Amino acid sequence: MNASEMLSRQGRYLLQLGVVLFLFTSFEGFIIPALAAPNLGRSVHTLSGFTGVLFLTMGLMWPMLKLGTTASRVAFWLLIYSALATIAGFVVAAFLGAGGSIIPIAAQGVRGSDLQEAMIQALMYPAAPTGIVAFGLILWGLRANPN
Fold it and tell me: Could you tell me the maximum CA-CA distance found in the chain, to the nearest angstrom?
């Protein structure tokens, strides 16, 4: 498969994933009051909606990137990992009533056991560098055509 076909296919996957996140956020909204930390549940709701918009936007522009097959694979998977790991950390925190050590504003003082906090940190800390690499590659792929 050449780079153009791969970018087109990845763009479609990002569009599909964006719609899946809209469905997730729609259903997740119903359980917010039942969560151990409803404020974190509301944050999951907002973050999932935002990430859905991000994936839709990226999916539409993805075929325009000027990246080879390896760079597009790396950018694609790191973007997805970064976004979903962040959402997963918020989901776990909302269900456990934890997260004050890593997302103190959203957690509003709710703090779990050391093990729970460590688990949330293990989910969320790798999301930042992978997201930075993904966005760096995406920015590089948006460079102007030298012609």
Answer: 58
Whether the pTM exceeds 0.90: the reply is yes
pLDDT at residue 147, rounded to an integer: 58
Which residues of the chain fall short of a pLDDT of 50?
Answer: none
Residue type, 111: R
Are 86 and 47 in contact, with CB atoms under 8 Å apart? yes
User: Are 27 and 76 a contacting pair, CB within 8 Å?
Assistant: no
Task: Outline where DSSP puts E strands in the chain.
Answer: none
C-alpha distances in angstroms, 109 versus 55, 95, 101, 133? 31, 15, 9, 31
Listed by start position, the domains of the chain span 3-141
